[in-house]
Specification:
This protein is 83% helix and 0% strand. With 460 residues, the protein is mainly α. Helix 2 runs parallel beside helix 8, helix 2 runs antiparallel to helix 9 and helix 11 packs parallel to helix 14. The protein is globular, with a radius of gyration of 22 Å. The two termini are 26 Å apart.
Length: 460
C-alpha cells in the first residue's frame, strides 16, 4: 500500500506543502471580506455598522461549520493513519450529513432571532433594517457555506490542500466580482452584498464536491442507502463541539463587546464600527495562521494514528515558530500604518480617531496569539479540543469582557475611551498561560508515551 505523504514527507516541506494552498485560499477569503466591507462602506457608515453588528451571528454559523469539520478531520486523519479505510469513509459521509444539518439550524435561528440580535445592540431603526436584510440572506442560504467548509476540509485532511485553494479562491473571486453589481448596479445595498456572498459560497461548494468525487482517492463518498452512524457522529462532536463552543464564545464576546462600546464608549456606534473594521482587517493576518494550522492538524492527527512522536513534535515546534513570525509581522503593520488600513473603509475623521488607537492597541496581543493558536490546533488534532475551549472561554468571557467593561466605564469617567482596547492584550496573556499549561499536561499524559519513530507498538 502506497504511503501517504503525511507519514513520510520531511516535516518542514510537508507543513508548507499542506499549508501554502490553504493560506493562499484563506488570504483570498480574507481579502474578499475586506473588499465586501469596503463596498458596503461606500454606501454609508451606518451600512458598515449594520454589517459589523451582524458579525457575531456569522461567527456562530461559521463556528458550527468549522467545528464539525475539525471533528471530521481529526477522526478521519486517525483512521487513515491506522489504515482503517472503511472507517475513514464513514466519517467523511457522516460529516457531510452533519454539515447540512448545521445549515438547517442556522437558517431557522437566523430567520427567527435576527431582529432581536440587532435591537439589543442598537436603537437606530435604519441600521436594524439593513442588518436584518443582510443576515436573513446570509443564514437562510448558508447551505453553500456549510457544504464548502466540509468538502474543503475533506480535501485538506487527505493532503489535497491545493484543491481547497482552488475552491476558496473561486468562491471569493466570484463574490468580489458580484459585489459591485448587486450593491450599486442593481441598487440592492447591503442585501446585494449578502447575495454576492452566498452565490460565491455555493460555487465553492459545488467545486469542492467535484474535487472530492474525482480527485480524492483516499476517501470514497457513496451516498446510496446512507444512514447516520450515531457512534461516529458522537465521536465527531466529542472533538468538534469544543471547537463549536469556542466560536460560539467568540460570537458572544463580539456581541457583548459591541454592546459595551455602544453603551460606554464616547463614540457609541462609531466605536462598534471601528471594532468591526478591526476584525475585517485582522483577518488578513489571522487567516494565514489559521491556514497554517489547518494544514498542521491532519499532519499531527495522521502521525498520532501512526504512533510517531518524532514527527508530531517537530510539526508542533515548527507550527508555533511559523505562526508567531506571521503574527509579529502583523503587529508591526498595525502599529506603523493604521491610518492607511482605516482608509480602505472610507473612514471619516470620527471613525479614524477611534479606529487608529483601536488597531494599534489590540495588535499588541498578536505577539502572543500565534503560539496560542498553534498549540490549540495541536490539542484539537489529538482529540483534546476541550482544552482549547477552556482557553477560549477564559480569554474571551472570563478575562476580556469583564476587563473591557471595567476599562470602558473607567475610561468614560476619566475621559479616555481608548482604555477599553487594552482588554485584548490583557486577555491574550491569560490565554497563553492557560494554553501552555494544557499542552504540558497533554504532553506528559499522551505524547511522551507514544513511540518515538512509530516502530514500537503503543503501550497498552
Amino acid at each position: 500500500m502506497q504511503e501517504n505523504k503525511l507519514g513520510v514527507m520531511p516535516i518542514r516541506k510537508l507543513i508548507w506543502n499542506m499549508s501554502l494552498p490553504i493560506i493562499a485560499s484563506m488570504l483570498v477569503q480574507a481579502l474578499y471580506n475586506v473588499v465586501d466591507s469596503m463596498f458596503v462602506a461606500m454606501l454609508s457608515q451606518d451600512a458598515l455598522t449594520a454589517v459589523s453588528l451582524a458579525f457575531s451571528a456569522q461567527q456562530l454559523m461559521i463556528g458550527l461549520a468549522t467545528g464539525t469539520a475539525v471533528g471530521v478531520n481529526a477522526m478521519m486523519g486517525r483512521a487513515l493513519g491506522a489504515r482503517q479505510q472503511e472507517r475513514a469513509d464513514k466519517v467523511a459521509i457522516n460529516g457531510i450529513f452533519l454539515a447540512f444539518v448545521g445549515f438547517a439550524i442556522s437558517a431557522v435561528l437566523g430567520l427567527c432571532f435576527s431582529n432581536a440580535l440587532f435591537t439589543f445592540q442598537t436603537k437606530q431603526q435604519h441600521i436594524i433594517d439593513m442588518g436584518n436584510s443582510y443576515l436573513h440572506i446570509i443564514t437562510g442560504c448558508s447551505f453553500g457555506l456549510f457544504g464548502q467548509v466540509m468538502f474543503e476540509r475533506l480535501l485538506q485532511g487527505t493532503g489535497r490542500s491545493i484543491y481547497s485553494m482552488y475552491t476558496q479562491g473561486t468562491g471569493a473571486i466570484i463574490n468580489i466580482i458580484l459585489d459591485p453589481v448587486f450593491i450599486f448596479v442593481l441598487k440592492l445595498g447591503v442585501a446585494g452584498a449578502a447575495i454576492a456572498t452566498v452565490i460565491g459560497q455555493c460555487c465553492g461548494c459545488v467545486l469542492a464536491f467535484y474535487f472530492n468525487r474525482k480527485k480524492n482517492t483516499d476517501i470514497h463518498l457513496h451516498f446510496r442507502h446512507f444512514r447516520p452512524d450515531w457512534r461516529i457522529v458522537g465521536g465527531i462532536y466529542a472533538i468538534g463541539i469544543p471547537s463549536v463552543i469556542m466560536m460560539a464564545i467568540g460570537s458572544v464576546m463580539t456581541f457583548l463587546m459591541n454592546k459595551i462600546l455602544i453603551t460606554y464608549h464616547a463614540a457609541h456606534e462609531t466605536a462598534a464600527t471601528a471594532f468591526g473594521v478591526f476584525f475585517k482587517i485582522n483577518s488578513l493576518i489571522f487567516m494565514p495562521v489559521f491556514g497554517l494550522n489547518n494544514g498542521v492538524v491532519p499532519i499531527v492527527a495522521y502521525n498520532y494514528g501512526a504512533q510517531n512522536r518524532k514527527r508530531m513534535m517537530e510539526t508542533v515546534k515548527r507550527s508555533v515558530t511559523y505562526a508567531s513570525c506571521i503574527m509579529l509581522f502583523g503587529m508591526i503593520v498595525f502599529l506603523t500604518v493604521p491610518q492607511l488600513l482605516m482608509k480602505i473603509f472610507s473612514a471619516g475623521d470620527e471613525l479614524m480617531a477611534v479606529g487608529v488607537p483601536c488597531l494599534r492597541i489590540i495588535s499588541l496581543s498578536f505577539a502572543l496569539a500565534g503560539a496560542c493558536i498553534a498549540l490549540g490546533s495541536t490539542l484539537q488534532a489529538l482529540g483534546k479540543s476541550v482544552y482549547s475551549m477552556i482557553t477560549s472561554f477564559i480569554r474571551q468571557l472570563v478575562v476580556l469582557i469583564p476587563a473591557a467593561f471595567l476599562l470602558a466605564r473607567y475610561g468614560t469617567a476619566v475621559g479616555n475611551s481608548n482604555l477599553v482596547w487594552w482588554s485584548y492584550p490583557i486577555a491574550e496573556i491569560a490565554a497563553l498561560a492557560v494554553t501552555v499549561c494544557c499542552f504540558i499536561h497533554v504532553y506528559k499524559t499522551i505524547i511522551c508515551k507514544i513511540p518515538l519513530n512509530g516502530i514500537e507498538k503503543p503501550q497498552e
